[in-house]
Specification:
single chain, 178 residues, mainly beta, Immunoglobulin-like, five-stranded mixed sheet, three-stranded antiparallel sheet
Length: 178
């Protein structure tokens, strides 16, 4: 009688072990990245990184780098409960980011990395200033340079919604226009 009971116990333990190992392999998936979307070129400086939840995950990790190989990590969160994080970025810069789900056993592999680029800050006008009056008819527009800008676009309109443009110049290489 003990022999039969012992046999059943061993059989049950073996089935339980195999089943547990199979469930771990099915669950250990990296999260899908949600936002900012891969390749986005218009991300604001204060951006929310967002990824989806994974069944069975007990926490998540994320990394952000300016390098695609993540050899220099700028931001890192390990074993956080949330599936998003709000971070501040430099303007006009490309970033790479990835996330991983943590399970009771091992951490998963990292998700495939995504990239995004933050928008440049608009330049500040030196002359004319907003709401200036008595401006000469021959006008020189001057603005401060933006460190990451390569060119500038200038639009001038008589109305606030810029539906009719008086000046529409793109690709200007300097911080002045006459």
């Amino acid at each position: 009688m003990n022999r039969s009971l012992l046999f059943r116990l061993m059989s049950f333990v073996a089935v339980l072990f195999i089943s547990s190992a199979a469930n771990t392999n099915l669950q250990a998936q990296p999260p899908d990245l949600m936002a900012p979307v891969n390749g986005d070129l218009c991300v604001v400086e204060e951006a929310l990184l967002d990824w989806d939840t994974q069944p069975g995950a007990i926490s998540y990790s994320y990394q952000v780098s300016e390098l695609a190989d993540f050899s220099n990590i700028l931001y890192e969160g390990l074993e956080i409960a949330e599936t998003d994080v709000l971070l501040i970025f430099w303007p006009g810069t490309q970033y790479f980011w990835r996330a991983a789900a943590n399970y009771p056993g091992p951490i998963t592999n990292w998700s495939d990395p995504w990239s995004f680029t933050t928008i440049n800050e608009p330049p500040d006008f030196i002359y004319p200033q907003n709401d200036d009056f008595c401006i000469p008819l021959t006008l020189n527009f001057n603005w401060n340079s933006v460190p990451t800008a390569v060119t500038y676009d200038l639009q001038v309109s008589a109305n606030e919604n810029f539906s009719t443009l008086i000046i529409d110049e793109t690709g200007l290489g300097s911080t002045t226009y006459s």
